[in-house]
Predict the structure.
Amino acid sequence: MKNSMTVAAVVLALIATPVLAQGRRGGGGGQDKAADTKPKVDEKAYKAALDRIPEPKEKYDPWGVTKPADAAKKPK
């Protein structure tokens, strides 16, 4: 009887440990300070930077490396 109570106590302790770890919150508001130090985004400068990016002359093919160049020219 004493042995089964010990096993039951160990099983309950093993089950309860992850539950307690998930419920803990640490830091006490450390995320608020990090959000304040983040630089502000200037929408005008962002749009101006996007306008300075040149348009590509050829369309980019991400799978072009995997297939040979002759395969695109051959009709099926």
User: Anything to note?
Assistant: The mean pLDDT is 75. The chain has one domain: 2-66. The radius of gyration is 30 Å. The chain is about 55% helix and 0% strand.
